[in-house]
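Working notes for the structural subgroup meeting. M.R. asked for a predicted model of this chain before we commit to crystallization trials. I am recording the input and output together here so anyone reviewing the notebook later can reproduce the run.

Input as submitted:
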Amino acid sequence: MLRTSLIRRFQPKIIIALYGFLFITFSVQAETIYELDFSVASGDVKKWFETIHWEFREDIAEMNLRFEEGKLVIEPTQDELGVLMREFDKKDYLHGVTKLRIEWGVDQYPPGADWSGPKDKSRNTREAISFMVFFGDTKLNSGFFFAPNLPYFISFFLGKDEKPDQVYFGNYWQKGGRYLCIPCDGSTGKTFVTEIDLSAKFFELFGKQQLPITALGIAVDVQKTEKVNGRHSKAFIKRVELF
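Returned structure, recorded in token form:
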């Protein structure tokens, strides 16, 4: 009797709470702010990116980009740097992004890449693939005359010998740039899912509230690495979601 009376007493509140939970869950799932989905991509890679306002920079056009089995494949045969870049106009800055999700993987890591050692030591900081998120529009000193100044950024990459719990620095952009290898178990031919709480990570790395996202980039850097199997690396990316 007591249990029945309690259920009757709190039943309206329970129902309201359940509706609230379902509404919140649906809202979170529905709030995809930006997405790259290569499962439906086909045709000429450069034209595909140009239609969504991404640019080819450096030597990315020479890295054998192709759409294959629902993914973007990047397979450089020369020791070069390539970047795909999307810079947003101020009216299109991405506000309110809290999480990032990437589905991607590596079939061959660039032999000779080395992120180890102190940040004041010059290292061969290379990667088969990385996804870069830029925050704000204030450009910070790169630390090198020939390297352009850039806003705050976090670069997520997949590495063979790096550690998932370590914050890495590049040789340049040490004031505003941080590199994270997540999940980073060094496997090949496997699809990884990288999920990050961007707002919390930005505060952890830079000690301030997250700024709006002003640019995105997909980068490959295999300079000064060895060629194996006729290539320096091979990586793929299936989907990117910001929500």
